[in-house]
């Protein structure tokens, strides 16, 4: 099966009808691979793909562009007004509005697709242009308006495959300079009728992405060292700069190092050079004022400091400094906003200005210059250990069982036994050995390819699967402190409200990411949240509940869900959305708070 590049729920307009009506618009699951754009029916109750309804060969696509929105469209295709509730616009199960149209033009005419969000439309157009960039029949003109009632609204031509009436303002299918596999076509001269259309029409589409040149390529800096795991990977050296050649295979980017070597790198191991503060251990991006104060007090070192994003002034930075005090045994903390002059120079004290923030920090590491202390000890929010990669090397989702070493059993879950082990003798992994009959295996294997591309610092990373033997294995990131439910119940631990709040924040970040990727968890609970060595909580088993064959997860309508954590609409109608995940999160927080309180009470004499 070809690797899926993108997968989304869109509204599709029928291609067979001259007259359009509400019956001509259907919700379909669209899948993009290197060779085909396919669309399927989708079972919203069970959350699974239905029968295939059609496909377009990538090599037959001649143009991908936006379409001027309809005049006075029905509510389902209207852009929501300011203040209107649009929380469920990016969900994969319950999507009510599709206001952003685009067209995929091929030999049979235009395929009109409506996206729930502008960002999702932009991402699909960009990716489609990338996969068609070497097609031999790319056009230089297109129709910016819909074909309705037997004609194009922009030029009144009646043939569906008629030549476009407006010249593309950017190249159709973004090509890299010097990498073309064909000769670039010159645009055809306009006919007198087209000149007239162009003069009378005010329709102009925004310019598409321009071809990249070496000077325009994105430059990144490596935050961590990375050793290649397979032949396609490129080694990263912390602090070195790299040129990004291709970003279409998130979360892996194709890059080039200073010696001209090319290969794939994990995108979460680098940052753009324009935001290179992340390479410094004194910088903590996502941290609040109170969290900074707590970390500095825990460290308790005179001159301890953190540089963070200002929470009160967007776009600015704050330096938080701790100093010991004879008056207050807990010491004192001051927060200094990094100011900027009209000449874009930075300062904490007006007499000492610098071109960059690192230069400013270096100066104040040797001179207090008005601060309560010079900056002596950088304090980090977390240990600067390298994050997990999405898979064990680029494109490696099927793992050879011979590369796995089993070290000890961690426990037994709803899918089977979970063991701690090593991959190739050096990388810690958790290995879930799926009990036969506990999971719908064929469907899960297809879904695993999509789940592999989900990568976030607060998600337990899926590394790959072993499917060529039984039982099948699911290989994930290893979390040393086990599940959150047991972690909270340990008598020796006493959790402060701030620590519990931080756990909630970790889970919120993970769930926000899943929602942005149109992915539902469906089984969020403390047992499915794991804790790593640094005490960071990560969400695991996202989406797996769909494949459980246990009766506890099966409703009368056939869908699978955890009853005790499910909201009324799931129990009554088997309808899932991000709102049902929010309900489960609320129930989980109550469990965590009770579990922490119970553990504290049990430890008291």
Automatic annotation (TrEMBL):
Source organism, top-level taxon: Eukaryota
Domain SH3: 215-275
Pfam families with a match to the protein in the record: BTK, PH, PK_Tyr_Ser-Thr, SH2, SH3_1
One of the record's GO molecular function terms: non-membrane spanning protein tyrosine kinase activity
Top EC class of this enzyme: transferase
Disordered, as annotated region: 176-211
Every Protein kinase domain range: 404-605
EC number assigned by the record: 2.7.10.2
UniProt domain SH2: residue ranges: 282-379
A cellular component annotation (GO) from this entry: cytosol
Known cofactor(s): Zn(2+)
Catalytic activity: L-tyrosyl-[protein] + ATP = O-phospho-L-tyrosyl-[protein] + ADP + H(+)
Gene Ontology terms: biological process: intracellular signal transduction
Binding-site residues, ATP: 432
Keywords: ATP-binding, Kinase, Metal-binding, Nucleotide-binding, Phosphoprotein, SH2 domain, SH3 domain, Transferase, Tyrosine-protein kinase, Zinc, Zinc-finger
Span of domain PH: 3-133
Entry similarity comment: Belongs to the protein kinase superfamily. Tyr protein kinase family.
Protein name as annotated: Tyrosine-protein kinase
Source organism (scientific name): Amazona collaria
């Amino acid at each position: 099966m070809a690797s899926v590049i993108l997968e989304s729920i869109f509204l599709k307009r029928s291609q067979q009808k001259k007259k359009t009506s509400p019956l001509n618009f259907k919700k379909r699951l669209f899948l993009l691979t290197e060779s085909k754009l396919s669309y399927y029916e989708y079972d919203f109750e069970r959350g699974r793909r239905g029968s295939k309804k059609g496909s377009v060969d990538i090599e037959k696509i001649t143009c991908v562009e936006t379409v001027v929105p309809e005049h006075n469209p029905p509510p389902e295709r209207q852009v929501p007004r300011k203040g209107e509730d649009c929380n469920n616009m990016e969900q994969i199960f319950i999507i009510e509005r599709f206001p952003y149209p685009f067209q995929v033009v091929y030999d049979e005419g235009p395929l009109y697709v409506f996206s729930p969000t502008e960002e999702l439309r932009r991402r699909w157009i960009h990716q489609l242009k990338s996969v068609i960039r070497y097609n031999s029949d790319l056009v230089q003109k297109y129709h910016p308006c819909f074909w309705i009632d037997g004609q194009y609204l922009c030029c009144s031509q009646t043939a569906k495959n008629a030549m476009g009436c407006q010249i593309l303002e950017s190249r159709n299918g973004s090509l890299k300079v010097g990498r073309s596999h064909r000769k670039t076509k010159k645009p055809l001269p306009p006919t007198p009728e087209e000149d007239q259309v162009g003069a009378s029409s005010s329709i102009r589409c925004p310019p598409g992405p321009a071809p990249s040149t070496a000077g325009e390529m994105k430059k990144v800096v490596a935050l961590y060292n990375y050793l290649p795991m397979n032949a396609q990977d490129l080694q990263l050296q912390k602090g070195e700069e790299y040129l990004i050649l291709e970003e279409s295979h998130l979360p892996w980017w194709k890059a080039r190092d200073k010696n001209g070597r090319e290969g794939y790198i994990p995108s979460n191991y680098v940052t753009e050079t324009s935001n290179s503060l992340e390479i410094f251990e004194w910088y903590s991006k996502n941290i609040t004022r109170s969290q900074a104060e707590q970390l500095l007090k825990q460290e308790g070192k005179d001159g301890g400091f953190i540089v963070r994003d200002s929470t009160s002034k967007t776009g600015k930075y704050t330096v938080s400094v701790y100093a010991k005090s004879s008056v207050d045994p807990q010491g004192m903390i001051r927060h200094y906003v990094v100011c900027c002059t009209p000449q874009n120079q930075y300062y904490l004290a007006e007499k000492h200005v610098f071109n960059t923030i690192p230069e400013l920090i270096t100066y104040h590491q040797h001179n207090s210059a008005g601060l309560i202390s010079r900056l002596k000890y950088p304090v980090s929010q977390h240990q600067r250990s390298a994050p997990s990669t999405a898979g064990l090397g680029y494109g490696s989702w099927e793992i050879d069982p011979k590369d796995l070493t089993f070290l000890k059993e961690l426990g037994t879950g709803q899918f089977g036994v979970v063991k701690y082990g090593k991959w190739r003798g050096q990388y810690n992994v958790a290995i879930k050995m799926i009990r036969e009959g506990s999971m719908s295996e064929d469907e899960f294997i297809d879904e695993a390819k999509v789940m592999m591309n989900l990568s976030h610092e607060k998600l337990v990373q899926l590394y790959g699967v072993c499917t060529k033997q039984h039982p099948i294995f699911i290989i994930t990131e290893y979390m040393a402190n086990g599940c959150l439910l047991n972690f909270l119940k340990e008598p020796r631990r006493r959790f402060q409200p701030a620590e519990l709040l931080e756990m909630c924040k970790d889970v919120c970040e993970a769930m926000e990411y899943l929602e942005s990727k149109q992915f539902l968890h469906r089984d969020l609970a403390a047992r499915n949240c794991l804790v790593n060595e640094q005490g960071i909580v990560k969400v695991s088993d996202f989406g797996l509940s769909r494949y459980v064959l246990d009766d506890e997860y099966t409703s009368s309508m056939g869908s699978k869900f955890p009853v005790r954590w499910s909201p009324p609409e799931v129990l009554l109608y088997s309808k899932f959305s991000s709102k049902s995940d929010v309900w489960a999160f609320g129930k989980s927080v109550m469990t965590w708070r009770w579990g922490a309180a119970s553990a504290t009470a049990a430890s008291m004499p």
